[in-house]
Write a structure and sequence with these properties.
The protein is mainly alpha-helical. It has helices at residues 2-8, 13-25, 47-69, 77-148, 154-161, 165-202, 209-247, 249-271, 277-302, 336-354, 374-389, and strands spanning 306-310, 317-321, 327-330, 362-365, 393-396. Helix 11 (374-389) links the parallel strand 4 (362-365) and strand 5.
Length: 403
């Protein structure tokens, strides 16, 4: 710039010298040795002196340029400033990152201290809990030793706790099976012991061993004889089978006739007799069963307590008392009222039995109405009223004014 000013002769030489002087003053201390070459001109200076000063200034400018090249590698000021601003910006960002990192570290330290304090409390609580559990474990081991009479250490207990739940369940099942087997064996042993004691108490035989040996010898001889007889019988059976095969169809005809004979014999045994008594007995039993069926229908209306039944193998009657657990009673054990109701049911049943072959429209009853209590009398009258409602004429012979 200075060279351009000088070469252009735009300013006076004295002004140029003053500018140069100011530039020199602003130079760093490394350029002190060159200040001596600067000569400030005065109006009285000659041209030759000014040229010398100009040459010195040119030399100084060249030296300054060389010196400038050694600073910042000769880069322009704007590029240096740009790099410095970028470096300052990067340094600020790094500083901010470090500040954030420091804050995070401080927060982690605070959190870690809080966690450490909480862990300390937890450790203290767990230590107390561990002490209590150790005391409980020691008390349990002591109780187990007193209950079962077998000492159990903590190491043995830990080895037992290492087993799985499935293994424990299998062992329990096996132990239960063993207990059941022991209980069953104990029960059998007790039963056999009682049987042995009972057998010893009975003393089935007072014989001596010599007599028992003689009896055994005799028994063996009988067994031998029976075995020989069995062989002989077996031989005879085989011979009989051969004879049957030789007879052939004759035996089959005999078997057929035998079957026919057996059927007639069974029929004769059941109903056969010279006077026909058996057949009449069967017919009467059958008719009586039918009559009792009708009579029980009417008896259920009169009294639900009793059911009439024929005595097996005879024509006699008996009653089943349903209020006494189906107890079988004889008809002679009935009271007067109960006998009246049973007789009325039989009469009504006989009428029902006869109505299957003929129409019975009238029924005359001559019974001891005067011996009935009011409740039984009402039941009997209700039954006759129902017959009357069915279109039948009912005649009652009695001296009771109520009837």
């Amino acid at each position: 710039m200075i060279l351009n000013l000088l070469s252009g002769n735009l300013f006076s030489k004295s002004f140029i010298v003053s500018i140069a002087s100011g530039m020199v003053k602003s130079l760093p201390s490394s350029f002190e040795y060159q200040k001596a070459y600067l000569i400030f001109p005065t109006p009285s200076d000659t041209n030759s002196t000014s040229e010398e000063k100009l040459l010195k200034l040119q030399d100084l400018h060249k030296a300054l340029l060389d010196q400038r090249k050694t600073l910042f590698n000769g880069d322009p000021v704007t590029a240096v400033e740009t790099r410095l601003r970028a470096s300052v910006h990067a340094a600020k960002q790094a500083l901010e990152e470090e500040r954030k990192t420091a804050e995070k570290i401080q927060s982690d330290i605070t959190r870690g201290q809080a966690q450490q304090e909480q862990l300390g409390k937890d450790i203290s609580a767990l230590s107390q809990q561990e002490s209590a559990l150790k005391e409980q474990l020691s008390a349990w081991l002591t109780g187990h030793h007193q209950q079962h009479g077998a000492a159990l250490t903590q190491e043995e207990l830990l080895s037992l706790l290492a087993f799985t739940q499935d293994w424990i369940e299998k062992e329990r099942a096996a132990l239960r099976a063993i207990d059941d087997a022991v209980m069953q064996a104990t029960s059998i042993w007790e039963e056999r012991t009682k049987a042995l004691a009972a057998h010893d108490g009975q003393r089935p035989s007072e014989s001596t061993p010599e007599a028992l040996n003689a009896l055994r010898t005799e028994t063996q001889e009988l067994f031998r004889q029976h075995t020989q007889e069995a062989h002989e019988i077996d031989f005879k059976l085989r011979e009989d089978t051969l004879n049957k095969q030789r007879i052939g169809t004759l035996l089959q005809d005999i078997e057929k006739q035998t079957a026919v004979f057996e059927n007639w014999a069974k029929l004769n045994e059941l109903i056969g007799s010279a006077d026909g008594k058996k057949f009449r007995q069967i017919a009467q039993e059958y008719t009586l069963d039918v009559l009792l069926g009708y009579a029980n229908i009417h008896l259920e209306v009169l009294s639900k307590r009793y059911v009439l039944q024929r005595i097996p193998g005879s024509l006699g009657l008996q009653v089943i008392d349903q209020d006494m657990g189906d107890e079988v009673r004889t008809v002679y054990s009935l009271s007067g009222d109960e006998s009246f109701l049973v007789s009325q049911a039989l009469a009504l049943g006989l009428a029902s039995l006869s109505s299957s072959r003929m129409k019975v429209e009238s029924l005359f009853i001559d019974e001891g109405f005067g011996s009935l209590d009011p409740a039984t009398l009402n039941i009997a009258m209700d039954a006759m009223e129902r017959l009357h409602n069915q279109g039948r004429k009912v005649g009652v012979i009695s001296h009771e004014m109520v009837i």
